[in-house]
Amino acid sequence: MEREQGESHLFPILPSPVPKHEVRAVWLTTIMGLDWPKTKATSASGRERQKEELCEILDQLQACHINTVVLQTRVRGSVIYPSKIEPWDVCLTGTFDRDPGYDPLAFAIEETHKRGMELHAWLVTVPAFKVENARKMGRKSLMKTHPELLKKHGDQYYLDPGLPASSDYLKRLCEELVAGYDIDGIHFDYIRYPEYADTFNDAATFKKYGKGQSKRQWRTDNITRMVRDAYEAVKAIKPWVRVSCSPVGKYKDLSRYSAKGWSALGAVYQDAQGWLKEGIMDMLLPMMYFQGDHFYPFAADWAEHTYGRTVAPGLGIYFLHPKEKDWSFGIIQRELCYLRQMGLGGQAYFRSQFLTDDTKGIYDYLEKTYYPYPALLPPMTWQSTSVPETPHITSRTRVDGINEKIEWETETEGCRYVIYASTKTPVQTSDPKNIVKVTYDTSFTYNLLGAYYHGYHLAVTALDRYGNESLPLSLP
User: Fold this and answer.
1) Side-chain half-sphere of 78: how many Cα atoms within 13 Å?
2) Whole-angstrom distance, CA of residue 282 vs CA of residue 298
3) In angstroms, rounded to a whole number, what is the distance separating the alpha carbons of residues 97 and 25?
4) Is the peptide bond before 426 cis (omega within 30 degrees of 0)?
5) Euclidean distance between the first and final Cα of the chain, in Å?
């Protein structure tokens, strides 16, 4: 019997230590401007307002200690950066393939990094576009450049995962992004067969490429090939770029709990746990937009099958909204506490506006209770275990008589820095309560009188692109 909302007391809210390493991600949606942008960049003032909107969102996310912004970069066969492969998305200007007059992805990366957060480029993978938009997208539309890769299914066109050239196409998009931008991650959404896959029109493809396999195994292998090829392409250019995806929230039927016909492996051919095991995925953000027996057993299953990689379940906070399912806040609160108790790698939230609007108090809870101080992403030790060089002081300057500006550098390229403060010396950098700030800056200004009266000591560490942390520079 499934637990209903009124039975949620079966999972009591218990305090749990806040980990130092934890993914705190939010999906920032651009399709139809749902999260951003609200203003169209059709004039200089519109362009500036569009930028301001993003900065306002990022300020809010930073203030509640989100550390990973998953920005929808490829929407539906269209993108939010000047691509040589695909057209501009309609969300930016109201017109497909219209240049907004700036590079939104480059701007988003710069502003996210200013706030010490990571930016992961979110690619909607297999869906191309709705049939009604096929002729509106201009000369760089897939319909014009590679119509042979497309299959119509329902009211949309999709890449046919059974065609090796579809995997090659995805690789090209990844290579363009990773080579051209200082992104911290690539995130695949919908890297799977579509819903109602039984009616997906790939019989001719299966006949040509099936090679005696069952159609189920062939389709599963097709999606795995797309993942493997994309992963290897990203790592060949920048091995520190964290590759992730958002599989369906239930991997498969469990011995005691059925997925009710909707699972990653069973319904849409996503062998997500197999990708972790093979080492062709760094992180999963499974879409666990459920409650009760649809959530807890399947979250436990993810926790038991991480294969040393990071799994940070995605929570459907949009269901808190009265116009959605009007969930009580306790449902999300209990799920958050359970995930942390189970030792999973973090959490992700769908979607940004429901967080920044403080729907049912979710923002307030994260800022004041669940995320009381910053956290670092789990290091990708399977890519690198080398420790970056410890920062060393280059200058200490008195500012306005009562402040001191400290500047430092390190020999390791591309680092962020973690600033710690404590009344004890040496500062314990293992204790997340001591984290003051995560920054890309190589300087920090603090109040000398405040530090003296409160007895604070400072320390700075370097954090490399893989998430490995240096030994601390102690500042007496």
Assistant:
1) 30
2) 20
3) 29
4) yes
5) 60
Residue 377: how many CA atoms within 13 Å on its side-chain side?
32
The two tokens of residue 201 are 């029109």
DSSP 133-167: GTTTS-TTSHHHH-GGGEEEETTEEEE-TTSHHHH
Residues of the chain within CATH 3.20.20.80 domain(s) are 5-370
Six-digit token pair at 361?
């108090």
Question: What's the fold here for domain 5-370?
Answer: TIM Barrel (3.20.20)
Classify residue 322 by burial, with Cβ atoms within 10 Å: 0-12, 13-18, 19+.
exposed
Asked whether the beta carbons of 380 and 396 are under 8 A apart, the reply is no
Question: Sorting pLDDT into bands at 50, 70 and 90, what band is 15?
Answer: low
Rounded Cα gap, residues 13 and 340, in angstroms: 11
- Percent of the chain's residues with pLDDT above 70: 97
pLDDT for residue 12 is more than 60: no
Three-state secondary structure call for residue 123: strand
Whole-angstrom Cα distance, residue 468 to residue 471?
10
Cβ proximity of 24 and 355 under 8 Å = no
The CA distance from 27 to 367, in Å, is: 18
Whole-number Å distance between alpha carbons of 114 and 221: 40
Q: For residue 20, what are the CA distances in angstroms to 103, 290, 362?
A: 34, 27, 21
Q: Could you give the 3-state DSSP secondary structure of residue 418? A: strand
Model pLDDT for residues 365-418, shown as the tens digit of each residue? 999 999 999 999 999 999 999 999 999 999 999 998 889 999 999 999 999 999
Which letter does DSSP use for residue 59 in this model? H
Residues whose CB falls within 8 Å of the CB of residue 7, separated by 6 or more in sequence, listed in order: 292
pLDDT tens readout for residues 38-62:
999 999 999 999 999 999 999 999 9
CB 138 within 8 A of CB 96: yes
Tens digits of residue pLDDT in 154-183: 999 999 999 999 999 999 999 999 999 999
Domain 392-475 indexed as CATH 3.20.20.70: no
Phi, psi of 171 (to 5 degrees): -60, -45
Residue type, 38: K
| Helix and strand totals (H; E) in the chain | 13, 20
Q: What is the pLDDT of residues 217-257, one digit of tens each?
A: 999 999 999 999 999 999 999 999 999 999 999 999 999 99
Torsion 312-116-316-189 (CA) sign: negative
Q: Which part of the chain is CATH 2.60.40.10?
A: 392-475
pLDDT tens sequence across 430-472: 999 999 999 999 999 999 888 888 889 999 999 999 999 999 9
Nearest to 287 by CA among 310, 264, 265, 308: 264
